[in-house]
Design goal:
- The protein has 434 residues and is an alpha/beta fold.
- It has three domains: 47 residues, Transferase, Pyrimidine Nucleoside Phosphorylase, Chain A, domain 3; 248 residues, Nucleoside phosphorylase/phosphoribosyltransferase catalytic domain (Pyrimidine Nucleoside Phosphorylase, Chain A, domain 2, 3-Layer(aba) Sandwich), CATH 3.40.1030.10; 89 residues, Alpha-Beta Complex (Aldehyde Oxidoreductase, domain 3).
- The chain is built from 17 helices and 13 strands.
- Strands 1-4-5-13 form a four-stranded mixed β-sheet, sandwiched between helices. A four-stranded antiparallel β-sheet has the order 6-9-11-7, sandwiched between helices. Strands 10-8-12 form a three-stranded antiparallel β-sheet.
- Keywords: Glycosyltransferase, Ribonucleoprotein, Ribosomal protein, Transferase.
- One of its GO terms (biological process) is pyrimidine nucleobase metabolic process.
Length: 434
């Protein structure tokens, strides 16, 4: 078998066999196939596409390229959740304790953020002492004992995907549905969960800007999950404006805690309840989504979800006192208002611009080596459809550097559009793929 022949086959519109895809993935991961040949193959796939069978074979080959996490020692059905990411997306912080409080086992692998804010791990490090650098043994024990554990993704988990993504990133071949779906699902399948709930974002702050593309990706990933023998559901949700009101690491942690205390933003709570209801249903503890939602609402009402978050933080070395007293979370030195330049209804927010504001303040990473400031960010006061008077605050900005705050303020104001007439709010949950 020669890589040259496979490149020509795909370039001419041919279908790659399972053995050919496995040869290609293992050879590239092992260093026998050079970058320039795999770059040519990625470009051929980009233009000629892959059918469902090829996409499944690629996904499984990448999932099997390293360690497959064995969660068989964890009791019950293991459910995982994945988000395609967005601005203010702190969902795992509130969702996983709610689901675990219902009795579902949540064994989750998460990463650090590269972009406007930190990833789940960065946000969790707002709790002093918290660590995801736990052993596989402790990871499994924690899930069995308290129902939840989150650890950093190991280098040996789907290494082919990491290597392939790096190549796609510099060869303009990221934006292909089969390659995107296989990249996400290979890591989820290697993580060992029995059921996977996917949150696919769409809008100006999402990877998938167009709703049609988001639904296509959701369908592709659900089908991949099912064909790989896992239960899978996808929720398509709005990211045309930040999720909730807080954007920034410790600020998002506080908002997640407020939600578990019953004081969270309506859109964020709705997303947690929607995703969580499918996690509980797939986990076999509820007959349907409606029954599962009631169970989740009860975990907030009786305080069990908040207690579960505290147990989880403590089990991984963190100071759980901050769960009950959010003043203990990292705080910025300067807190100022961003005043509205005009009066009217908020017509539109360019969502990814708000993310860039957080990055300018130091709340995200421009490179993997960048330091992250957990205390900075923004808390929105007005969102799409809200009425504002000139001079009223659009947001509260939290920063540690006045020059950075000035640049972020200017960018923030430029992200808002105003209308003289009332603006209709769009549905937050766009659809469900099962």
């Amino acid at each position: 078998m020669r890589m040259y022949d496979l490149i020509m086959k795909k370039r001419n519109g041919g279908k790659l066999a399972k053995e050919e895809i496995e040869y290609m993935v293992s050879g590239f991961t092992g260093g026998q196939i050079p970058d320039y040949q795999m770059s040519a193959m990625m470009m051929a796939i980009y233009f000629m596409g892959m059918d469902k069978e090829e996409t499944l074979h690629l996904t499984m080959a990448m999932a099997n390229s390293g360690d497959m996490l064995d969660l068989s020692q964890i009791d019950g059905i293991k459910v995982d959740k994945h988000s395609t990411g967005g601005v203010g997306d702190k969902t795992s912080l509130a969702l996983t304790p709610m689901v675990a409080a219902c009795g579902i086992r949540v064994a989750k692998m998460s990463g650090r953020g590269l972009g406007h804010t930190g990833g789940t791990i960065d946000k969790l490090e707002s709790f002093e002492g918290f660590s995801t650098g736990i052993s596989e043994r402790q990871f499994i024990d924690n899930v069995n004992k308290i129902g939840i554990a989150i650890m950093g993704q190991t280098a040996d988990l789907a290494p082919a995907d990491k290597k392939l993504y790096g190549l796609r990133d510099v060869t303009a071949t990221v934006d292909n549905m089969s390659l995107i779906a296989s990249s996400i699902m290979s890591k989820k399948l290697a993580s060992g969960a029995d059921a996977i709930v996917l949150d696919v974002k769409t809008g100006s702050g999402a990877f998938m800007k167009e709703e049609e593309d988001a639904f296509s990706l959701a369908k592709e990933m659900v089908e991949l999950g099912k064909n790989a023998g896992r239960k899978a559901v996808a929720v398509v949700s709005d990211m045309d404006q930040p999720l909730g009101y807080a954007v920034g690491n410790s600020l998002e942690v506080k908002e997640a805690i407020d939600t578990l205390k019953g004081n969270g933003p309506a859109d964020f709570l709705e997303l947690c309840l929607t995703l969580g209801s499918y996690m509980v249903e797939l986990g076999g503890l509820a007959a349907d989504e409606k029954e599962a939602r009631k169970m989740l609402e009860q975990t907030i009402a009786d305080g069990s979800a908040l207690k579960k978050l505290a147990q989880f933080i403590e089990a991984q070395g963190g100071d759980s006192k901050a769960v009950y007293d959010t003043d203990l979370l990292p705080k910025a030195e300067f807190i100022e208002e961003i005043a509205s330049p005009k009066e009217g209804y908020i017509e539109k927010i360019v969502c990814d611009e708000i993310g860039i504001c957080s990055l300018l303040l130091g709340g995200g990473r421009e490179t993997k080596e960048s330091d992250i400031d957990l205390s900075v960010g923004l808390v929105l006061e007005k969102k799409v459809g809200d009425y504002v008077k000139a001079g009223e605050p659009l947001a509260i900005i939290h920063g540690n550097n006045k020059d950075k705050m000035k640049a972020a303020k200017e960018r923030f104001i430029g992200a808002y559009s105003f209308s003289d007439s009332p603006v209709e709010k769009q549905p937050f949950i766009k659809g469900i793929i099962r």
